[in-house]
Write a structure and sequence with these properties.
Elements (H helix, E strand, L loop, with lengths): L9 H11 L18 E5 L2 E4 L4 E4 L2 H5 L8 H13 L10 H12 L6 E5 L2 H19 L6 E5 L8 H4 L5 H4 L9 E4 L14 H16 L4 E6 L15 H11 L3 E5 L23 E4 L11 E5 L1 H5 L23 H15 L2 H22 L3 E6 L4 E8 L4 E2 L2 H13 L2 E2 L1 E2 L11 E4 L7 H19 L1
Parallel strand pairs: 3-14, 5-6, 5-7, 7-8, 8-9
Antiparallel strand pairs: 1-2, 2-3, 4-10, 9-10, 11-12, 12-13, 12-16, 15-16
Helix pairs in contact: 3-11, 4-11, 8-9, 12-14, 13-14
This protein binds 4'-deoxy-4'-aminopyridoxal-5'-phosphate.
Length: 460
């Protein structure tokens, strides 16, 4: 059935939504007084809701996903053709798009060789954690079972991945959590924890301190976002990644990079880690992988990691004893293949670098006018503006006013985001911009102009 709505059906849709849909991240009480926002259509950077109101989407579908923009017929056609040929087969067998996409992906990831399919970022990370645990069981006599994660980073919504949530608010009320996940300090230089010259190296050394405290024999892996997303759009300080890599090598700790947000062009390269010279053992990705045209995630590993599951097959346990039912859907890899072709053929990585520089420069110039902007940071089309009540003390701006700025942009037809409340001083105070990689200079200027007006209205 194709959904074809007439104008008078739309109020019915809103009522059905209000009565029956349990929205993500929403206070449902608000729908007693305000209609839920329900979108009908998207094209490029634009969205239309049931009332016909047009929006410029500066967050790629709410959570930095629609990297190539809305309404891509070539992806829809590729998925349609594949679905009528073969929609699905899972378990111990492959399918054509899965093989071809894995090959194409690996071309972009020198040093990595194996692709494990599932459906969401959380699931991709869970798979990686399970790999680490199984490697510990098989190769380290049960040692090296701990996984380090970083304050302010986020890796998913399941109980296992929430055990690695560096954002306290997200994990509250869902515990107790499994053992063996240990937090290391964040590396946000704007909120310095050490008064030193080489901040990047110092922040990385803090990881080594945790490893020594826990015992290097007990630590199997560390999971890190190349640029922290929801925890405040945190770009790493100079020297940070080089030192992190050295520490991982020194203690034989697997480096797992979570590219769920940064992957597939968001930061202006295929993957964020490639801009910092990192050589990971495991890379996870989801969101922009098929730009939301189909659900797909991947856990990509080196051959060395893959080989660790091949020892002693006679015991019947020497394989990664895991499955993902919908990892066998062909829509994901076929959409991902076309998504990648678009990024390549339309030069979207280059556009991301150019437009990202413009967005960062626009935000930086707003700092002269709005003292409420404490810091701006970003990489590619992934920028944040941290709002503070006082530049000297860096006291975060209260959540009400931050949300009023977001609402002020929405009233002008521009959708922006704000980051989640996090542990240790990081409140919900960073405006977040992650438009599709097709953004033009006009789009960027309209987004930052909307922020300018909203800030003037809310903060004077
Ligand atoms: N990792 C990161 C860095 C994320 O930002 C997210 C989602 N916001 C996830 C993992 C989890 O992805 P999903 O919601 O697809 O499970």
């Amino acid at each position: 059935m194709t959904i074809n709505l007439k104008q008078n059906d739309l109020s019915h849709v809103v009522a059905a939504d209000r009565e029956h849909v349990w929205h993500h991240l929403s206070q449902h009480k608000q729908y007693e007084t305000v209609d839920p926002r329900v979108f009908v259509e998207g094209k490029g950077m634009k969205l239309w809701d049931v009332n016909g109101k047009e929006y410029l989407d500066a967050v790629s579908g709410g959570v930095w996903t629609v990297n190539v923009g809305y309404g891509r017929e070539s992806i829809a056609n590729a998925v349609r053709d594949q679905l009528v040929k073969l929609n699905y087969y899972a378990g111990a067998a492959g399918n054509v798009p899965a093989a071809l996409f894995a090959e194409k992906l690996i071309e972009k990831m020198p040093g990595l060789t194996r692709v494990y399919y599932s459906n969401s970022g959380s699931e991709a990370n869970e798979k990686a954690y399970k790999m680490v645990r199984q490697i510990a069981a098989r190769h380290h006599g049960g040692k090296k079972w701990k996984i380090l994660y970083r304050e302010r980073d986020y890796h998913g919504t399941t109980i296992g991945t929430l055990a690695t949530s560096g954002q306290a608010q997200r994990a509250e009320q869902y515990g107790p959590y499994p053992d063996g996940f240990v937090m290391v300090p964040h590396c946000l230089e704007y909120r310095k924890q050490w008064d030193v010259e080489n901040y990047g190296e110092r922040a990385a050394d803090a990881i080594e301190e945790v490893i020594r405290r826990e015992g290097p024999d007990s630590v199997g892996a560390i999971v890190l976002e190349p640029v922290t997303a929801g925890g405040g759009v945190i770009t790493p300080p100079q020297g940070y990644w080089q030192r992190v890599q050295e520490i991982c090598r020194k203690y034989d700790i697997l480096l797992h990079i979570d590219e769920v947000v940064c992957g597939l062009g968001r930061t202006g390269a295929w993957f964020g880690y490639q801009q910092y010279g990192i050589e990971p053992d495991i890379v996870t990705m989801a969101k922009g992988l098929a730009s939301g045209y189909a659900a797909i995630s991947c856990t990509v590993t080196t051959e060395r990691v893959f080989e660790m599951f091949k020892d002693a097959p006679e015991d019947g346990m020497s394989y990664f004893r895991d499955i993902s039912t919908f990892g066998g859907c062909t829509a994901g890899p076929v959409a991902a293949l076309e998504n990648m072709r678009i990024i390549e053929d339309e030069g979207l990585l280059e556009n991301t670098i150019r437009m990202g520089e413009r967005m960062l420069a626009n935000l930086a110039s707003l700092m002269d006018k709005h003292t409420v902007i404490g810091d701006v940071r970003g990489k590619g089309l992934f920028c944040g503006a941290e709002l503070v009540a006082d530049r000297q003390t860096k006291e975060p701006l209260d959540e009400k006013r931050v949300q009023a700025v977001v609402a002020g942009c929405l009233a002008q037809g521009v959708i922006i985001g704000a980051t989640n409340r996090s542990l240790h001083g990081g409140l919900n105070n960073t405006l977040c911009l992650s438009p599709a990689l097709i953004a033009t200079a006009d789009d960027i200027d309209r987004i930052t102009n909307a922020i300018d007006s909203a800030l003037t209205k809310v903060c004077g």
